[in-house]
Each structure stands twice: as C-alpha cells, then as structure tokens.
Amino acid sequence: MFTKKYSEDININNPEKYDLTENIVWSSPQGFDLTLDIYSPKDVAENCPVVVMFHGGGFLIRRKEILNNMSQYIATNHDYIVCNVNYRLLKDQGNSVMFYDLIGDAFGSILWIKENIHKFNGNKNRIGITGDSAGAYICAMILNLGNKIGKREDFAKDYTFEPTYIPENMTLDEISKEDLLDVKAAVLSYGGYDFYKYALQNAETYKNFFWWLAFAKPRGVLGKEFNPIDHPEIYKAISPIYNIPIASDRKLPPQLLTAATRDKITPVKMIKEYVSALQEKNQEFKFWEHLGRNHAYLDSGRTWIAGNDFIRDGIPALKVMMNFFNKYL
C-alpha cells in the first residue's frame, strides 16, 4: 500500500534522473525466468559504483518489487547504478526449489552483473550488495561462501553452490579460484543468519508462518532425506554464522549490520549474535540500530500489519546505508 503513491513523489522517485531497464531475464533455470531491474543514473560518466539488492520474505514470499521505492530513492538521490534482483523462492517450480538453488541464483546474479554492468556504465570492481531479512541472509552467504563453488548435484557431499549463471568459457573451479563473487562492501538489514537453529525451531513446518503466507506445504528445504537433528552439518553449511572465515585467512569486505529495536522476527539479540561471530573472526563491520522501528522498515509504501512507512522508516535508514557505501565504493 502507498507504493505507487510514493513512486509519484519526486523526492523519492525522479525518473528524469535515471534510465530504467526492467525485467531483464538474466537466467532461466529449468525454464524459470529470473529477472532484475537496472536503474542507471543519467549524465554520469562510466565506472559508476553499483548496489545490488536482494529482497526479503522468508525465502517464500515477495519479489523484487517490494524494494521498488528503495531502488527509486537511491537512483534519484545518488549517482549509483541499482540492480534489484529476483531469485527463486522455495515455493517456486511446484514447491521444489532447494535452499542451495536460491543461493545459486544469488551467486549467478553477481556473476551476470559483473559481466554485463559495463553496458550500463557500471564498474564491476565497485559493487556493493544489500538485502533485508532473507535478503540480508543471502548477502551473508555471498560474503562468507562465495568461494564455495561446485556442482548442484554434489551439494550434499561437498557443500558447494552452483551459480545459476556462469560466464561463457569459464569453469566452476575458475570462478572459485579467481574470487569472482568478491564485492567491495555490504549492508545487511535485520537478517537472521542461522538456518540450523531456525530449522530446529520448526522452520520446515507450519509453525513457520511464511509457509502459510506462501500457500505452500512445509517440507525439508534440503531434501526429504535430511533433517536438522540427524544432519546438523548440512544445515550449518547453509548458515552464514557457521561459515565466517578468520580474517587472517580471508578478509571479508566491510559490512554494516542493522537491526530494528522493535523487531520480533529478527530481534536485536539475534543480529548481535552474528555481530559477535564477526568480531571473533576479526572481520570488519559496523552495527547500527534503527530505534523504535519494526522488521521490514525498508519495504515499499506503507504496511499496516508491521506499521511501517517508507518515508518515515525507510529513508532515514537509507541515509545511513548510503553514507556507508559512499565510504567504501
């Protein structure tokens, strides 16, 4: 609600300042088209910094459009290229998508953007990533596990991810060895980073309300043969909090972790657990709390259930986020 109205607010969205290319099909795994929108600032020289964003929704609901106001605001008020990305949800393709499939989609989108962003005057070496809620989790996977590349069918054996898009004449091994998923900075907003613990708390059952919202039957997201009690390691393999490298072995790009003080879905204490894990590994980060706000404050428009309003709640957070990106991109 109010998404369209806010899109007509010139302070949020001024189409005179950017070119928009919508619904670019960047990959079609098993015939399922994956799309992204690219906002390119007008009258700006080549080598623009790039912000790639991934939407939230518990891996089961929402699409990129929920971040339209956020994309419009950045494109209107900053000289950045914005890539707003769709990935497969667990409910897609007949409720058959595996968790490692949607991570492979995210990995593939970064590879596609790096290969093609020059066509939009973007600099592939100045890419920052951001996401909210499930999108923040996806960003953490890119940061922590972007060098874990392998065949989809081998996931249960080696815990690696196959990108949905692979540049022509490149091998999976080359993508991994050359760190082609490396980015320069990241902003992770109100994410949860421990799917293992989430699964132990019935994430794969109807007690996870996102299955209800998606009108989808709960199931094991890693296949029928796996569950978190008997197979903890495979669930930890898809959980960012267990896969933060030691900085002396592999230094991650600087990241800003945000939390909302009234958030009951991913409360502040949950974010601080991940902050502590980063600190233990000597990784560079900053932490910021959005005081008096609820989960999903970056969503477009006005949401009655969460009580959020993009103008009141989203824009102040975006100012903090863009100050961070300005420093590192």
Structure commentary:
With 329 residues, the protein is of the alpha/beta class. The protein contains twelve helices and ten strands. Strand 9 (302-303) and strand 10 (308-309) form a beta hairpin. It has helices at residues 3-7, 68-77, 92-95, 99-116, 134-145, 155-158, 172-177, 195-200, 209-213, 232-236, 268-280, 310-328, and strands spanning 18-27, 34-41, 48-54, 81-85, 122-132, 185-189, 255-260, 285-290, 302-303, 308-309. The strands form two sheets. It has an eight-stranded mixed beta sheet with strand order 1-2-4-3-5-6-7-8, sandwiched between helices. The protein has a two-stranded antiparallel ribbon with strand order 9-10. The mean pLDDT is 97.
- Amount of beta strand: 15-25%
Annotation, overall tally of beta strands: 10
Main sheet: strands, sense, barrel: 8 strands, mixed
Number of helices: 12
- Please state how the strands of the largest beta sheet are arranged side by side: 1-2-4-3-5-6-7-8
Q: If you average the pLDDT, what whole number results?
A: 97
Distance between the termini: 33 Å
The amount of helix comes to 25-40%
